[in-house]
């Protein structure tokens, strides 16, 4: 079996915006062999009444960053599949001397 290892690193920091105030920001970076890295970002508002439990906003921001990363990876796979399927269909048609018709 051909095994591959992909690593995701999540960096969490404070993010301040004039519109939203203090937030927790997480960036999830996926590293794969031989491909461009994907980076997902997630934000979570910090509740000023919960200063003793910062993990809540860390968890929310990280979850949102992973969801963003997942969406990007899914979209990239769908685009690759569409290109590959189109190329394979054309190649198979050419192998049999057939013209490719679009529906």
TrEMBL record:
Keywords: Plasmid. It comes from the Bacteria. Gene3D superfamilies: Rv1738. This is DUF1876 domain-containing protein. The lineage of its organism: Bacteria, Bacillati, Actinomycetota, Actinomycetes, Mycobacteriales.
